[in-house]
């Protein structure tokens, strides 16, 4: 009887592991596609002065520039708040639009940093993200408490960024960038583990599961982009 129970337990673990792998494969596929859209749009706009002029002038952002700046944040709240009402297809469409708008809003980096600097920091970010995502997926350590601490630290970081927006301290900006790198490096591992656990309990092939995978992709996408931006501020060479 004990042997039978052990076999059933092992089969359950295998099934849960297979579900998690399938779910995480969808998450990373969506995330990679979104990053590709963002990168292409950012490069397309950022390297064309005529297109940049629609978003930014010498005196600051244009009206369209402000729309592009705040629209991605609004879409994040819409996707989260309307999760139960939207279909997976609607969520995917919003995610694509969000990714393109993020690309437009990030096009400024091609004006502020050299192409070589952007490229090198991107690969550093990708390597760091990959290592931490693998750690979060494979570790048996519960990262829940660690994640809670990082989320509180993130709130403090946002407050510090707002304060420094008025202070305009280059030293504070450097410190904030370094702390931001640490926070989003840790959040990558935490969010990956959290999504893996979600994947172990979902029913494969349903509309609800697809929506969960899209929201998971959005979470890891934001971890990656924020990690990249903080690394760029910390390591990048300005034009």
- What low-confidence regions span 5 or more consecutive residues with pLDDT below 50? 6-14
Query: How many distinct helices?
Result: 9
Q: Provide the domain count.
A: 1
Label the overall shape. Answer: globular
Helicity range of the residues?
A: over 70%
Q: How would you write the strand order of the largest sheet?
A: 1-2
Strand-pairing-aware structural class:
mainly alpha
Percent of residues in β-strands: under 5%
* SSE string: HHEEHHHHHHH
Mean pLDDT: 89
What separation lies between the terminal Cα atoms? 71 Å
Largest sheet report: 2 strands, antiparallel
Describe what you observe in this structure.
The protein has 239 residues and is an all-alpha fold. It has one domain. It has helices spanning 2-46, 49-55, 63-81, 88-105, 109-112, 115-138, 144-167, 170-199, 207-235, and strands spanning 56-57, 60-61. The protein has a two-stranded antiparallel sheet. Strand 1 and strand 2 form a beta hairpin. Helix 1 packs across helix 4 (88-105) and helix 1 packs across helix 9 (207-235). It is globular and about 55 Å long. It starts with a helix and ends with a helix.
């Amino acid at each position: 009887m004990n042997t039978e129970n052990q076999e059933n337990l092992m089969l359950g673990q295998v099934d849960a592991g297979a579900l998690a792998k399938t779910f995480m494969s969808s998450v990373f596929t969506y995330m990679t596609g979104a990053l590709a859209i963002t990168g292409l749009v950012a490069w397309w706009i950022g390297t064309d002065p005529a297109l940049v002029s629609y978003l930014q002038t010498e005196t600051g952002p244009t009206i369209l520039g402000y729309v592009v700046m705040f629209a991605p944040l609004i879409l994040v709240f819409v996707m989260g708040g309307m999760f139960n009402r939207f279909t997976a297809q609607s969520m995917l469409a919003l995610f694509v639009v969000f990714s393109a708008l993020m690309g437009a809003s990030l096009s400024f980096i091609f004006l502020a940093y050299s192409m070589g600097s952007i490229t090198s920091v991107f690969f550093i970010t990708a390597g760091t993200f990959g290592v931490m995502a693998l750690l979060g997926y494979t570790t048996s350590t519960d990262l829940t408490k660690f994640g809670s601490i990082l989320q509180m630290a993130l709130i403090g970081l946002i407050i510090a960024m707002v304060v420094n927006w008025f202070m305009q301290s280059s030293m504070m900006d450097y410190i904030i960038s370094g702390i931001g790198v640490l926070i989003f490096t840790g959040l990558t591992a935490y969010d990956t583990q959290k999504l893996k656990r979600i994947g172990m309990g979902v029913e494969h092939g349903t509309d609800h599961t697809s929506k969960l995978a899209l929201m998971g992709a959005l979470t890891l996408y934001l971890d990656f982009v924020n990690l990249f931006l903080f690394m760029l501020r910390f390591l990048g060479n300005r034009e």
